[in-house]
Design brief:
The chain is an all-beta fold. The chain has no helices and 6 strands.
Length: 69
């Protein structure tokens, strides 16, 4: 279950990634707001078809969010 302050990694389609931190958890953990390395705020939602966190409206291609320990 994601929690505020937890570390995460934003993985970009085609390669590359950046560190992030969870700053908000909504909808029982199905919607997250994270702050990337540059301070940019991004929102991710849990895709019911893939069980991965993706950007809203980008279920097939786009950024993914990986939760870290």
């Amino acid at each position: 279950m994601p929690t505020i302050g937890s570390r995460a990694r934003i993985t970009y389609f085609g390669g590359g990634h950046e560190s992030a931190q969870i700053v908000a958890v909504q909808d029982d953990g199905r919607r997250l707001q994270v702050r990337g390395e540059a301070g940019e705020m991004l929102e991710f939602v849990l895709s019911p078809s893939t069980a991965k966190f993706v950007r809203p409206g980008q279920a097939i291609a786009g950024e993914r969010l990986e939760l870290l320990n």
